[in-house]
Specification:
about 100 residues; alpha+beta; two-stranded parallel ribbon; 1 helix; 4 strands
Length: about 100
């Protein structure tokens, strides 16, 4: 007996600023460096002029800097230590 293993996935990229009660969210069909670059552009557009954003990132492959991520000048990526999702403040927002 055969079965159909095809599926469709969606990935939520989210960033929030609690102080300003605003955020930047994107729903993407894939999670990779290209999607992360689009999300970083969206975050950058939401940062007030003269301000600077810090984005907390876990160890996902598409969060790794290297040459693949194009981080705007008004954003700094802060990487969490491995196996510590409880340190990511955004994890509690989804609850």
């Amino acid at each position: 007996m055969g079965r159909d293993n095809r599926h469709i996935s969606t990935h939520i990229f989210g960033a929030i600023c609690l102080a300003r009660a605003t955020g930047a969210v994107m729903i993407m069909p894939y999670a990779n460096a290209k999607a992360m670059n689009l999300h970083l552009q969206e975050i950058s557009a939401e940062v007030e002029p003269g301000a600077h954003a810090v984005s907390v990132c876990d160890g996902a492959g598409w969060h790794q800097g290297g040459k693949r991520l194009l981080v705007p000048d008004n954003i700094t990526l802060l990487s969490l230590t491995p196996y510590s999702p409880e340190l990511n403040p955004l994890e509690n927002v989804w609850a």
